[in-house]
Amino acid sequence: MIWEIIKTVILGIVEGITEWLPISSTGHLILVGEFLNLDKSDEFKEMFDVVIQLGAIMAVVVIFWKKLWPFGKKNNSHPINKSPFGQMIKKDIFMMWFKVLVACLPAAVIGLLLDDWIDEHLYNPWTVAIALIVFGIAFIIIENWNKGKKPKINTIAELTFNTAFIIGVFQLIAAIFPGTSRSGATIVGALLIGVSRTVAAEFTFYLAIPVMFGASLLKLVKFGFNFSGSELVVLLTGCVVSFLVSIFVIKFLMDYIKKHDFKVFGWYRIILGLLVLAYFGCKAIF
Question: Membrane spanning segments where (predicted)?
Answer without folding.
Answer: 47-65, 93-114, 126-145, 157-179, 199-220, 232-254, 266-285
